[in-house]
């Protein structure tokens, strides 16, 4: 059966050629998307100097892992706090935008993630979505959100 012109609608949209970063329970689509483009990593900070940490028992290891999880959860709370449900992550020269822990925490927060967005695509994406890229977690504001319906 054919479709007539009256049955069609013009939809302003943007198509990504990147895969959604997901686990088994990760959302695969979002309606009324509130989108943020970030240019930083969702990781615990690394030191500038070469050093080693000696862990002598499991309680120390558990404490380190708990602190890392709390740090990442704090970042994700800021992201979720402005209403973001889609996160576009600019490709990093460091190659580590996030860890499995970060992805799992974003999954629990029901935030769809597309990572490895090329630097040259950022300007086009932000103009199309009418949003501003965020270079630091401290600069997260609702006015930087883009929207897609």
TrEMBL record:
It is found in: Cytoplasm. GO terms for molecular function: ATP binding; ATP-dependent protein folding chaperone. SUPFAM superfamilies: GroEL apical domain-like. Its main location: cytoplasm. One of its GO terms (cellular component) is cytoplasm. Gene3D superfamilies: GroEL (3.50.7.10). The keyword Hydrolase does not apply. Keywords: ATP-binding, Chaperone, Cytoplasm, Nucleotide-binding. It comes from the Eukaryota. PANTHER family: CHAPERONIN. Belongs to the TCP-1 chaperonin family. This is T-complex protein 1 subunit delta. It comes from Vitis vinifera. The lineage of its organism: Eukaryota, Viridiplantae, Streptophyta, Embryophyta, Tracheophyta.
